[in-house]
Amino acid sequence: MSDKPSEFFTEERNKKIDISVSEATLKQLEKWSEKAELSIETLCGVIISNWAKGTGGVFTGSWRQGKRVVLDWPLDGHFVILKVPEGVK
To answer: 6 partner at 20 to 30 Å CA-CA among 13, 42, 52, 58?
Structure first.
């Protein structure tokens, strides 16, 4: 594990997006963010940024059952461990 902060925390982040999630998803994000001592916004940024910068992908298309979205999570050993700099919320 590196002692260097993740690129997510050192690069300029100036684009904001609004997302809608279910109540169940929000509750899970709240649990994770509380455990990580990060805001939900920062936690979501970490998750999405690492997916997009890694080997993750999104595939769309039509199946017999209708339109589908397939999420391909970057599985680099199944876990990505990031160092969070002190003071980041």
So the answer is: 58
Q: List pLDDT tens digits, range 28-41.
A: 999 999 998 999 99
Distance of CA 13 to the CA centre of its chain: 14
Q: CA–CA separation, 9 vs 82, rounded Å?
A: 10
pTM of the predicted model as reported, rounded to 2 decimal places: 0.65
Label residues 33-62 b or e (16+ Cβ within 10 Å = b). beeeebeeebbbbbeebbbeeeebeeeeee
- For the record, the structure tokens of 32 come out as 């994770």
Of the candidates 30, 53, 27, 56, the residue with the CA atom closest to the CA atom of residue 43: 30
Q: Which strand (E) or helix (H) includes residue 63?
A: strand 57-63
Specify the 3-state DSSP secondary structure of 65.
Answer: coil
